[in-house]
Amino acid sequence: MSESFMAFFVGERVAMHEILWHGRGGQGVVLAAQILAEAAYIEGFRGVTSAPTFGPERRGAPLTASTRISDEPVRTFSQVAPADIAVILDESLLDAATGDGMLRGGGMVIINTPLKPEEIDARGCFCVATVDAAGIAWEHHLSMGGVPVVNTPLLGALCRASGLVSLESIEKGLKKKMPRSKASFNFQAIKTAFERTEVCANNGKD
């Protein structure tokens, strides 16, 4: 990743960072947004918020949730759009996450996919990060109703790709949102995702 891109996220840390999570009902989109907010607060950010963007949806329906992170108290509670970072739990939602001004130019998209960043057809000047979160979930026996749990592995990918929060803060955030034994189980998948996330500074597509 380029130094200038990293500076945007973690250099002087003066901007508000807006993250939009894209998934489907039942994938834990809202919980991931909450864990990130908790971890950011532990990391030392003074302003954090998280919320479903459109409210509860039926299982399998597209759903978004947002996380705002700032060095100063957050007084903005409107829908996040455009976002600085889009985290995509279901690859089929890529176009919705990056189209129609949903993601700022120069922003980042983090995708659950076995593909490499340069293989992603995301139109626009975005930093692309990929990780096979589903494969990692199966590897760590993380599933619910026969479906891989990908929300927590993607927290590891976000840590690696953005540098906004540390793995240590994510682990502490997990323990505040789920039982300790379950948090430890999920954290192993998060660490694996952190190690396997691949980042391309710019996909170079218009």
Model description:
- By secondary structure, the protein is α/β, with parallel strands linked by helices.
- It has one domain: Pyruvate-ferredoxin oxidoreductase, PFOR, domain III (Pyruvate-ferredoxin Oxidoreductase, domain 3, 3-Layer(aba) Sandwich).
- It has seven helices and nine strands.
- It is globular, with a radius of gyration of 15 Å.
- 49% of the residues are buried.
Feature tags:
disordered N terminus; 206 residues; single chain; alpha/beta; Pyruvate-ferredoxin Oxidoreductase, domain 3
The residue ranges in which pLDDT falls below 50 over 5 or more consecutive positions are: 1-14
Structural class: alpha/beta
Strand order of the largest sheet: 2-3-1-4-5-6-9
The top-level CATH class is Alpha Beta
Cα gyration radius (Å)? 15 Å
Q: Which superfamily, in CATH terms, is the homologous superfamily?
A: Pyruvate-ferredoxin oxidoreductase, PFOR, domain III
Put the structure in a nutshell.
This protein starts with a helix and ends in a 6-residue tail after the last strand. The protein is an alpha/beta fold and about 210 residues long. Helix content is about 35%, strand content about 25%.
List the helices and strands and how they pair.
Elements lengths: L2 H9 L5 E8 L4 H15 L3 E6 L9 E9 L12 E6 L5 H5 L4 E10 L14 E5 L1 H7 L3 E2 L2 E2 L2 H12 L4 H11 L2 H17 L1 E3 L6
Parallel strand pairs: 1-4, 4-5, 5-6
Antiparallel strand pairs: 1-3, 2-3, 6-9, 7-8
Helix pairs in contact: 2-5, 2-6, 5-7, 6-7
